[in-house]
Amino acid sequence: MAKALPSAQDLGISAVQPSLAVASYKGATGGEDDAARGLYVAGNQFAAAGEHLQQAQDKFDELQSEDRFNQYQERLNQIANDPETGWKNAKGENALKPEFNRKYAEIFENERKKLADGLESPGAKQRFSRLAASAALRNRAALYEHSANERVAYEGKVFNDTIKLIKDNAWRAFGDDAAFAAELERAKAVTEKFARGWSTGASEETVSRAIQEVESNLWTHRIQAAVAAGDTRLARDMMGKATKSLTTTDKETLDAKIKPQLKAAEAQTKVDEIFSRIVPKNPNAPFPAIELDAALRKEFAGDPEGLRMARVEADYRYGKINAQQRESNHANFADAKRIQRQNLRAGYSRMQDVANNRNFNSS
Fold first, then answer.
1. What is the pLDDT of residues 151-182, one digit of tens each?
2. Residues 216, 191 contacting (CB under 8 angstroms)
3. Looking at the predicted structure, is the pLDDT value of residue 198 above 60?
4. Considering only CA atoms, which of 276, 274, 287, 284 is closest in space to residue 318?
5. Distance (Å, rounded) from C-alpha 180 to C-alpha 225?
6. Residue of 1, 39, 60, 196 with fewest CB within 10 Å of its CB?
7. Does residue 37 carry a pLDDT above 90?
8. Contact assessment for residue 166 and residue 218, using Cβ atoms and an 8 Å cutoff
9. What is the C-alpha radius of gyration for the chain, rounded to an integer number of angstroms?
10. Model-level pTM?
């Protein structure tokens, strides 16, 4: 019967557990196995190499995820700023359609997924996903803000277009009270809706101020239309009706621009009356300059600005009368010369006839 081989313990050598080979080695001392020492060194080298490999992998994951994130940001910039398809270039109602925000949010996600799928390392994917998620959220927030701003701008455009149309209608129908009242009510209703933002609340003070401003502006526009048409009497009457509706700014505008025009028109009307009363119908009659100045002074007593305007108009008309008189005198002189020449020719002709008759009789 074969005899069993002696164990390591029988020979006085401690057994080395494979899993603890590196950890149980306390240093190379005389009598220890060279193989155990080599295993220890190799283990240390393997551990260091593994650590270096993990560091290299972590660095590669970081670089690769950063590279993909840069690509993602470039794509987000292109999606935002493309001259034809960029969401930042969508204006007005194009940025307000229901599918607008949803479409670009899906584009953000599709681009992120495409770049993430190209990464093999789980660590790189995880890091890229964190960076991309943050960038996507920022871009979606900017996208929603763009839509909100375009809504406000679009509201403003629609409101301005509506008010312009109302003002044009009021200008054309300035003398029609019923038509103006209808346009005014429409303007007030649209302004109230706009002031409340259609969907957002506004204080009653803000709404009231906006309505007053558009009402005042519409009255000013109507008065200007009347003045432009030469209907100064209607313009003056409308100014009286609109006193409580006009803002301070519009009152100042009318005082600065409209009232002088009204005053000039009134002065012209009064000069018409004075001329028709005291200026002779015969253009060749002497012009009553003294009587005219006295009549103007009386008519515009206490109104120096009105008197100044009336004298300007009177001087203009006096100049026209003088021109007519000169033309008439010139025409009369030309007629007199023509008649004189005709008479001379007729007289000479008669003298010739007499002379001819005498010569005939004497023969």
1. 888 888 888 899 999 999 989 988 999 999 99
2. no
3. no
4. 287
5. 12
6. 1
7. no
8. yes
9. 53
10. 0.54
